[in-house]
Amino acid sequence: MVMGCDINKDMVDFAKANYSSEDINFIVLDIAGEVPGSLRGKFDHAFSFFVLHWVKNQEIAFKNIYDLLGNDGDCLLIVVGQAALYDGFRDLAQSKKWRGLLEENEKYVSPYHDGEDSVSELKEMLLKIGFSTVDINEKPVAFSHDNEDSFRGSLRALIPFNIPEEQFDDFLDDLAYAMQEGDHKKYNLEKSSSDLTFNFNNIAIYIKK
Hints:
Protein name: Methyltransferase type 11 domain-containing protein
Distance between the termini: 20 Å
GO molecular function: S-adenosylmethionine-dependent methyltransferase activity
Largest sheet: 4 strands, mixed
Oligomer: single chain
Pfam families: Methyltransf_11
Organism: Leptosia nina
InterPro entries: Methyltransf_11, SAM-dependent_MTases_sf
């Protein structure tokens, strides 16, 4: 039996309508909230890819994952660490042009973006929670696109702000430029958004109860 969960009811309803089966179910669940007692210790494996960094209270989220797993249960996750995208959000949030639409930008910055040693900090937290095995690997990723439409489509999918449709193309232009500046000036990268490339640090985490 596979169970998928998300905090957003609309997403869960869509998943139920399109992907449910006898062996697959979906529920609304806030991984940083209260975990139902009926689910505690019921799972052998847990997976999360490019999602958990949206949760601000990481310790509570991982404690809940620990509680959901049964004895010897394990979990594989991928989260985003440092990324020029977040620097772009911050730059535009300070601009007169966009700051009114990006007032909550810090809400969408990965908790691992500013860390000097995210791997060590994560490992310390996970061991404190009680996980017996903690294996973390962080590496830079340059995700390149074949054309501008593909690049802009991917960038658009990552925008959590309510940008009016008539302003979206202009916003994407400014965001891509801000990311490019960060790529070159802050990270000294050769390829950047000007080369249709997303640069970010990929953090892969394997933990076992």
